[in-house]
UniProtKB/TrEMBL annotation:
Cofactors required: Zn(2+)
PANTHER family (alphabetical): ALLANTOATE AMIDOHYDROLASE, ALLANTOATE DEIMINASE-RELATED
Keyword Zinc applies: yes
EC number(s) recorded for this UniProt protein: 3.5.1.87
Name of the protein described by the UniProt record: N-carbamoyl-L-amino-acid hydrolase
InterPro entries: Amidase_Cbmase, Bact_exopeptidase_dim_dom, Peptidase_M20
Residues binding Zn(2+) 1, per UniProt: 89, 100, 191
Organism, scientific name: Nocardioides soli
Length: 407
């Protein structure tokens, strides 16, 4: 028998968890994430879902329509109406929370179980998906698996991406092509909310209206290495000072504009306590309410950084490593998913976080998202949380949604 939601959640809880912080380290194609991938395929087989993989590491477990004799010999993977796909990802940020990604996968499997217990016979194939490297925590490009599956990023480009140890993506996965989405007509992703909107509304479940545009930008500050003791302050070309001012400028500009800007990763060379650094590389994560606002914010931060570099005698180069435009989910689909539930319609809310759903939507696949309330409002942290009661409401909401979409 397949495991129920609570048993599945309990099985995942120790995998990749740090004893020191309680956070999770489930980086793509590393031990913990591969253990979860194997677990997912076992759960699919326990439900008689047909497992299909692509060349990039993405996986779908298909609940196929019964094959009738007339079409049994036709060379089609999913004969009949366009499929409805759900699911999420199993990788995490460094020292991340338990719910971001895995909640959508476990809930999808549990929703299939609930639909079957209700006696539902879907009129469309249903798939439960796991996309790889959603967080970009290893190879630096968020939603990498779904970008490759949709063709938003080519394998020729992606294969050269390297992790912090210099290992290329092409060295850990074969690469090639993907046909996983060829028959997909609709995608629904369930995710823990990464904020407090549902908490403030007193709602266990919400529906996404849009994803804010966002990007990752590498700032390379270069100067001159020198002795920390013998070099006079006025004689230094210290890129750390330029970076420090830039981080403060990003904070100020984002606050003034009501947007988001974060320097969360920094690398220093030569990284010695008694040496003025020669290089500081820092990564800016910027998120805004519109594409124009994003461009304006990044331009303002870059201009202040350049001005400071001129005063410090340092140099600056800015590289946009990834930029995702605004995604507006289908209002009609969101309204249909949110409407007519016990207790009233579910709220429709925006999100500032990126998701595989945004990539599939941008590729032209009608897409919806469900959020489950996070009482802490904290995400990408061990403090991320959702109650079992709310998670089960989410499972029911996802099953209701899939049932509607597969009629």
């Amino acid at each position: 028998m397949p495991d129920d939601f609570e048993r599945m959640w309990s099985d995942l809880a120790p995998v990749g968890r740090s004893a020191a912080s309680g956070g999770y380290f489930r980086q793509p194609f590393a031990t913990a994430e591969r253990e979860l991938a194997a677990w997912f395929e076992e759960q699919c087989r326990a439900r008689d879902l047909r497992v299909e993989r692509d060349d990039f590491g993405n996986v779908v477990g298909w609940w196929d329509l019964p094959v009738v004799e007339e079409v049994a010999q036709q060379p089609s993977r999913n004969p009949g109406p366009a499929a409805v796909l759900t699911g999420s990802h199993l990788d995490s940020v460094l020292d991340g929370g338990a719910y971001d990604g895995p909640l959508g996968v476990v809930s999808a499997l549990a929703a299939v179980d609930l639909m079957r217990s209700r006696g539902v016979t879907p009129g469309r194939p249903v798939g439960v998906s796991v996309f790889v490297e959603e967080e970009g925590s290893r190879f630096g490009l968020a939603c990498l698996g779904s970008r490759l599956a949709t063709g938003a990023v080519s394998w020729e480009t992606a294969r050269a991406l390297r992790d912090r140890d210099g290992v290329a993506l092409g060295d850990v996965v074969a690469g090639g092509s993907s046909s996983l989405l060829a028959d997909v007509g609709t995608f629904v992703e369930l995710h823990v909310e990464q904020g407090r909107d549902l908490v403030d509304r007193g709602a266990a479940v919400g529906v996404a209206s849009e994803i804010w545009p966002h990007g990752r930008y590498r700032f390379d500050f270069t100067g001159a290495a020198n002795h920390a003791g013998t070099t006079r302050m006025e004689d230094r070309q210290d890129p750390m000072l330029t970076y420090a001012m830039t981080a403060l400028a990003a904070n100020k500009q984002a606050r003034l504009a009501g947007q988001r800007a974060t320097f969360g990763r920094v690398a220093v060379e030569p990284n010695g306590t008694n040496a003025v650094p020669s290089r500081v590389t820092a990564w800016l994560d910027a998120r805004c309410s519109s594409d124009d606002a994003l461009a304006t914010l990044v331009e303002a931060i870059t201009q202040q950084a350049s001005d400071r570099a001129g005063r410090d005698g340092t140099a600056l180069a800015v590289t946009a490593e990834s930029v995702s435009s605004s995604v507006v989910f289908s209002p009609d689909l969101a309204a249909a998913v949110a409407a007519d539930h016990e207790g009233g319609d579910w709220p429709i809310i925006p999100t500032q976080a990126g998701h595989d759903a945004g990539i599939l939507s941008a590729a032209g696949i009608p897409t919806a998202m469900l959020f489950v309330r996070n009482p802490t409002g904290v995400s990408h942290s061990p403090e991320e949380h959702a109650s079992i009661a709310d998670c089960l409401v989410g499972v029911s909401a996802l099953a209701d949604t899939l049932e509607r979409l597969t009629r």
